[in-house]
Amino acid sequence: MTRVHASYTKLLVALLLSVSLIFSQQAAFAAQPLASSPADGAAEYKQFLQEKFDISLAGSITKGEFIEAVAKALNYKPSGEAVTFDDLKADSPLFSSAAALYENGILEGPGVQGEQVLTKSVAVSIAVRAAEIKELAYTYPVEKVNSALSHLQVTSSGLSKHVAQELAAAVDTGLLPGEFYNSFKPGSAADEQLVNVLLGKILVTKGLYKKYLGYISDADIYAKLSSAYQTSDIIDAPKLQTLVNTALEQELITGYNIKDSRFEPNFIPSLSLIYGHSNFKHAVQLIGLLRSEGLDAKVQFEPKTSAFIHLAEWGDPGPNVVKIANGNYIAYAKEYDLEFEFSTVADKAAFQNVILTYAKKNVKDQTGLIASSWWQPLYYSSTELKDYEVITNNFITDKDSPYTVNPFSLNEDSAKVVAGLKAIDPDAVITPFQFWVDKPFFNYLHGEAL
């Protein structure tokens, strides 16, 4: 009886090991679950500063170089009012940036000392003022200052009152992240990593860095996406719509979309692309699809309203329409763009295969696709991608509102479209630019079915 029981036990163990091996082999072929993505750091800020502003600081960095970088990143220009410095003449290359920062309360003068090596304490002080949190800093009493500075193993002795307060506020607000605490010596030279982080944090604090809901991998990304969609609505931009509705009536364009520039994410062009759709279930499933394929990215939701001609013979046009002279209608549809910023160019390139495999309809009643997949999906990039086609956005802006109109056209039709729009409104601000779009949408503009 004991021998039989032992044999049974061995058989059971063998079966369990076999099942375990099978499942482990299956797991090896499955996409690994995405880990939570960390917040941007020195490397991301460095890349952003280089691509957006052509700012690159390395090696021994001077105070003057940092001043110029801050002015450039914030687009600060001097007003022209008289500004004087003890050690800087008006014809100096640094003068314009220094004057701009002085007028914005970032430099105090009377000297700039631009040729000196930038120290960590000076870099933080300039960053606090540029991030517009100096008033907060100057509320700090000595006890609160010393409490914050204890994280740096620094005391306020030897520092001026304002510098100590600025350092303390930088610690408490996160302007100076914890990764710099252990090595922070106020009088030592500021290195490239610290400088890039401080410049990045200035932009973040002022709302001039990237804007996004979160990452594909975030546990709460679906809730954030749902909230963004539910609070979006049809965009009403009467001045711009008068122009492009007339263009629709004249058959100058076949449609357009309106967007709100306040939702523009300010992503790095080389890593980002935009995907447009109208169905919210599709958006949810798209995020899940990308997760299942092991692709992670920052995600921004941009409300969008699309307009197109609804022919009278099609029947009831439904709500959100405008009747035009020939009896047809201009119909408005609530849509959205999802803009993604991937961590690598390779991940960005991989996006297309996922869409063509699981979100591109090729035959009627096709199965194996995510909900509401389109015949001609729309996704595009401002930088070149293999197997994409180039078209034109005849981009229209209004200086009195945040809204923009995006009438896409084939490149060869752009001049005609712009001329026609200008004939309707000579004062229209139109800035055509080319970009890379998926082939199915390119074929759609050519009047092809797929």
What are the key terms here?
450 residues; alpha+beta; 2 domains; 15 helices; 11 strands
The number of strands is 11
Radius of gyration: 28 Å
Please estimate the helix content: 25-40%
Domains counted in the coordinates: how many? Answer: 2
- Please state how the strands of the largest beta sheet are arranged side by side: 2-4-6-3-7-11-8-9
Which ranges are low-confidence, i.e. pLDDT below 50, for 5 or more consecutive residues?
A: 1-30
Average pLDDT reading: 92
Sheet-strand content, in percent, reads 15-25%
Biggest sheet statistics: 8 strands, antiparallel, barrel
Morphology: elongated
Q: Which structural class best describes the helix and strand composition? A: alpha+beta
Number of helical elements = 15
CA(first)-CA(last) distance: 71 Å
Signal peptide: 1-30
Protein name: SLH domain-containing protein
Keywords: Signal
